[in-house]
Specification:
Radius of gyration: 50 Å
Largest sheet: 8 strands, antiparallel
Oligomer: single chain
Helix content: under 10%
Shape: rod-shaped
Number of strands: 30
């Protein structure tokens, strides 16, 4: 109620305009804390401007300018109650300041609310109270100076801040503007007209980001003033900075070295939940509570850490991109020289009196790089010989050659190597299948044959060093 008005009449019955289109505010899940929503207000000099600073981490401010003087009121006796209207969402405004804006009684008065940035949809709200002896027309624009439609302005169900059963204003939408009015108080009303509704309030919660709000007021009678309250819901701030954001797919599942926390508000933030963002390129999943990541393919895994909304703070989130890699190829082994090998036995011809025969060949010297030899018989051998793998012991089935390779494996300082020696197996003439000599038993001839075999073996299979096997 404005005691400066020229007309003082009792309250009128509730009037609802048929053209009003409003949305119902959602009920808060717990009692809101008004200190997290209502701003501190500083009146300018002259009192045609004011600055509102909202609580929270986002540093949102609003500048209010008008062509008429404003009064800054402390809100001790006139306030929005927590039981209806805007107070249901933001709590009671009692003892939080509001502005009382004078309306010029001869021409229109324009008040402009300019926000320092665009709040997200439904985060910012304002209420216009004690609407009776004036008509208010509200328009809004976003940061691109595009006018909001009346529906986007988010007009809510009007209420009476002074009495639960008190009269309320009508709210009429028309294109890009909304008119707030008391239909029982026409311009220049006749005597005894009800033009003092004492607390009739309209309030707005824009459904899209908004930057500028313009309130154009005109006088119907007397010297009216209307009241302006503002409120804001800040977002929670989620912080998450793990030191390690890359892991090998073979190390899945992977648990980050640090979990996310709510850094604003410092107390009372909601529990963090984790989810994989669709932007991920890896086939990954995440535990919603522990943030443990399971991945079966390489790529990126974008994990979003979210804090759900509370009665006083909007939801907040942040994301971290984890890179999932494959194991690096093993480092190539350093090039090592082959193990020095030498096998030059003094005796390479052996006389066998009867077949099969067993011969213990002279072993090669121990390799300088350590380790031990293994032995194998070459396929070009003509004596049908076999050899023990670990010792140079051969078994021969007939005269001829037995070509033996001594192999040494790789050691710390040397690569694998081998050396091959051809041994000659000599004997008397073999008997044919009939029992007759295969050739004349002439000692001289036999001696010459032995010499020829020995020479051939020396020429064809002289001791030689071989490098690493392929």
């Amino acid at each position: 109620m404005n005691l400066s008005r020229s007309v003082f009449v009792g309250a009128v019955a509730l009037v609802t305009a048929a053209t009003m289109v409003v949305s119902s505010p959602s009920q808060a899940i717990a009692a809101p804390d008004p200190s997290t929503h209502y701003p501190a207000i500083t009146l300018g000099d002259p009192a045609t401007s004011a600055t509102a600073t909202f609580p929270g981490a986002s540093n949102l401010t609003a500048t209010i300018t008008t062509g008429e003087d404003m009064n800054l009121v402390g809100g001790a006796s006139t306030f929005l109650p927590s039981t209806r209207g805007m107070g249901l969402i933001y709590g009671s405004s009692q003892n939080f300041p509001y502005l009382s804006i004078k309306v010029d009684n001869t021409t229109t008065t324009t008040a402009t609310i300019t926000l320092s940035r665009e709040p997200a949809a439904t985060r910012f709200a304002f209420a216009l109270g004690d609407i009776d002896a004036e008509t208010l027309v509200i328009t809004m624009e976003n940061a691109a100076n595009t006018a909001l439609t009346a529906a986007q302005m988010g007009a809510q169900t009007p209420f009476n801040h002074a009495s639960a059963s008190g009269p309320v204003p009508t709210v009429t939408e028309n294109g890009n503007e909304i008119t707030v009015d008391d239909p029982n108080c026409p311009p220049n009303p006749p005597p005894d007209t009800a033009c003092d509704t004492n607390g009739a309030t309209a309030w707005f919660q824009p459904t899209v980001p908004v930057k500028t709000i313009t309130i154009t007021s005109s006088t119907k009678t007397g010297f009216p003033r209307y009241q302006l309250w503002m409120a804001y819901t800040d977002s929670q701030v989620v912080s998450w900075t793990p030191a390690v954001t890359s892991f090998d797919v073979a190390d899945s599942p992977f648990t980050p070295d640090q979990l996310a926390t709510v850094s604003f508000p410092s107390a009372g933030g909601s529990t963090i939940a984790y989810a994989v963002d669709a932007a991920s390129t890896s086939d990954c999943t995440v535990d919603s509570t522990t943030a443990e990541i399971t991945a079966s393919t390489t790529g990126s895994c974008v994990v979003v850490a979210s804090a759900a909304s509370t009665s006083d703070f909007a939801a907040g989130s942040t994301s971290v991109t984890f890179t999932i890699t494959t194991p690096p190829p093993p480092a190539p082994e350093p090039t090592k020289p082959p193990t020095p090998t030498e096998w030059s036995p003094e005796t390479t011809t052996f006389q066998v009196d009867s077949f099969p025969g067993v011969i213990n060949l002279p072993p090669p010297p121990n390799p300088p790089g350590g380790g031990s030899y293994t032995f194998s018989a070459h396929g070009d051998s003509t004596s049908l010989c076999t050899i023990d793998r670990d010792t140079p012991t051969i078994t021969v089935q007939q005269p001829g050659t037995c070509i033996v390779t001594a192999n040494i494996g790789a050691t710390k300082n040397f690569s694998k190597a081998s050396v091959t020696v051809a041994f000659t197996i000599a004997s008397g003439p073999m008997l044919a299948a009939t029992g007759a000599p295969a050739w004349p038993v002439w000692p001289a001839v036999a001696g010459l044959v032995g010499v020829a075999i020995l020479v051939a073996s020396r020429v064809l299979y002289s001791p030689r060093h071989r490098g690493p096997s392929a």
